[in-house]
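Continuing from yesterday's entry. The apo prediction looked reasonable, so today I'm repeating it with zinc ion included to see how the binding region is handled. Same sequence as before; SMILES copied from the compound registry.
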Amino acid sequence: MRHALQFSFVTSLNVFIDGTWLLNQLAGGRSLANATDRPDSRFFLDFTKLNAALIRHLAAHGHGCNTVGELAISTSVFSLPADFDSWPSRYPGITPSQLEKMKRAVYARDQLIREAVEGGYSEAGVYRPPLREWILRKVVKGDYQEKQVDTTVVALLVRSAVTRPSDFHTVITGDSDILPAVSTAYPQFTKNVFVTTTHPDELRAEHRQTAYSLIDFAFTIPPFYMQNKENAEQIIRGTHVHRCQECGRVFTTGSPIPPRQRARCVKCRPTAPKRRT
Ligand SMILES: [Zn+2]
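Holo prediction written out below.
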């Protein structure tokens, strides 16, 4: 039976996520949240739906792809030391509120990783460096730079593309500076690799030091822009997902909207008429 598989025609989509970037994009106030009727709240991404939407994106551009192949998320999450709670009393200048902020950040990353794993993603590219006092001080000052995530995403993507050249491969990132390395290691990238990101204008605004633009690379498969409303609608978590007929924003409801009722988000729903006195 295993032998027969070699002759079957299976083309897979392999997906590699820069989890650090993705978590930032899912925050309230960012582009994905802005596609919904709750722009100030976190966007809840459904990774299983995302996988299906990416396969549909390939189909829409004329590429038959049956299933997902390798799925991996890379990010870095600090391991907090057992004595972390005593740091404010041991180290001058470290405050309980800095500790709480760090704990919330670690929790948010762990939660994203759990959700990705539920969607079939491997966490082999997740690093858990121990948090040290000097690192916390850098994080507080905003000078801490994560290094390992972009290089891991490039390594995973290139390994996938080189070992499975008849498959499709996508990288979920906002950092177009990884693309020169991809094109050097895998010059055929234009035919079966594509980028999944948010809108290029936002990419430029957020990464002012980015030397390259997506347009500099001749991808034949166009990028999948997650925050476009028709795409956000496909990847948001929830059983009953709608597009507002008034403003186009995406919203979810706990139960289906009755067939004769218009789909209207919380902002566009008429408020109860004011009672005349
Ligand atoms: Zn609306």
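Comparison notes:
- The CA atoms of residues 22 and 173 lie 7 Å apart.
- The chain has twelve helices and eight strands.
Will overlay with the apo model tomorrow.
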